[in-house]
Amino acid sequence: MQEGEQRQQQQKYVMGDEERKQLIDALKKKWEVLNHDYEAIITRVTKTNPLGLVREKERLEREMAQIEKDIQRLSTNCPLLIDPTR
């Protein structure tokens, strides 16, 4: 059992500042794309209000909220331990 734990520990690493910055930038770009889609849906939902568009709007809201949380976590100055097995 200890060998398996040792292998898992060896696979973990601390994310560097440059890698963190690149990840934050990529998340911000993804958020911008989602926000663009969200704004387009908001316009259509308020005019027609079909159920499918409402669900899509809610999905985009959830994704954008998660990305905002991820950006906030990555923006801290604490070291991030990355486990690629998860």
The main β sheet shows up as: 2 strands, antiparallel
Spans where pLDDT lies below 50 across 5 or more residues: none
Overall average residue pLDDT: 83
**What spatial form do the alpha-carbon principal axes imply?**
elongated
- The tally of beta strands, per DSSP, is 2
Describe the structure.
The chain is mostly helical and 86 residues long. It has one domain (15-76). Helix content is 77%, strand content 5%. The chain is built from three helices and two strands, in the order H-E-H-H-E. The chain has helices at residues 2-11, 17-48, 51-74; strands at 13-14, 81-82. The chain has a two-stranded antiparallel sheet. The longest helix has 32 residues, at 17-48. The chain starts with a helix and ends with a strand.
List the helices and strands and how they pair.
Blueprint: H1 2-11, E1 13-14, H2 17-48, H3 51-74, E2 81-82
Antiparallel strand pairs: 1-2
Helix pairs in contact: 2-3
